[in-house]
Amino acid sequence: MSASAKQRVIAALFTINFLITFSFGMNDSLFSLYLSELNAGGVVIGFAFTFYSLSKIGLSPIAGKLLDRFGAAKVLSAGLFLYMLISVSLFIINEPIYVLAVRVMQGAACALFRPVMHYVIGRITDTDGRGRAFGIFDLSFYTALAVAPVVGGFIKEYSGFDSIFVLAGGFSIVAMLILLPIFKELSFERCIQTKSNSVKKITGHPLRGIYVFIFFKGWCVVSVVILLPLYMKSLGISESFIGFLIGSSTAVMALFLPVAGILADRLKKNVLIFTGGLVYYASVVLLFRADNLHQLFFASVFCGFAGALSQPSCSSLLIELAGKNELGHVLGRFSFIMGLGASCSAFVCSIFLSYSDNLINAVFMSCLLGVLSLIVFLLMTSNKLVSYRVSPDASKTTLG
Known about the structure:
CATH superfamily: MFS general substrate transporter like domains
Helix content: over 70%
Mean pLDDT: 80
Structural class: mainly alpha
CATH architecture: Up-down Bundle
Number of helices: 17
């Protein structure tokens, strides 16, 4: 693939990633409030997040294999079509039980969408510049996440959730139209697996360390997503300010991502992941100890900085260890484990929402588990990265 073709593909995927993330980030950031308006109880709210996670983790390994077999274009098309159906469904239905079915669809759509982005970037970039590439590309994801809660909060406050669903459906259609011109460029020649390039030969213990890290990181992130809007609502903060505070964290993360990507190419990735994770868990504790807007804003900014520090390093290290021959398979397994952690978190949160008035304990527990997982991760990756790096031959592949 020529340099100009790569730029065209990355620009198109950047736009698609932004549109879909922004569309559903508006609703997801306030989803617990949306279910509350439908008079859903704590169990239903927890199940909504659990069903989403179970659907995502159930399809993620299959989606990874589909990527290796059928290519990114077809898998991405299916994901975008599902997102359009989800928007229409949320606009029509008004019963909590039906929302659970839609969340299953959304989990499937996510499994067919997000891994495709990393798959393509991993296939068309070189090892030396991959961290920077992910840092820049992920601006589309985290900028959308930063803007979406703010816009979603204002739209919800002045127009309601139906307007959010209409906007999401329109953006899904636009994303499908953007995909059409690059459809052929997203077709890669199928790689034949041999014993010399199998995942087991390439990865070993460091990859398992990444799996441990992402399981408990996913656990903590979902705890924050579910409980933070409810916690801030209990402090008397309006929906628009809730959206602003959530968006401020992601905005800082988006701004720092390019710098974090450069650091990922120059420093030890496992150290950056460990440091970023440790600071993130500390900032989450501060976030749920805050009791006014100034403290909440400071903790939110701190969360964004910490999240950016580990993000490009994690993506780059994962792809280095996987190689390109089974990249879809490894990304599918990675998404499966991250979703499993999110599902466990949603289940635990549903219990706390139903039987306890103290939401902070659920968050503190997830942070403690996260810190323990960082220690395991560092032990499994220290002094082993050089011997487990992918050889140049294993990383090369022919693009169609």
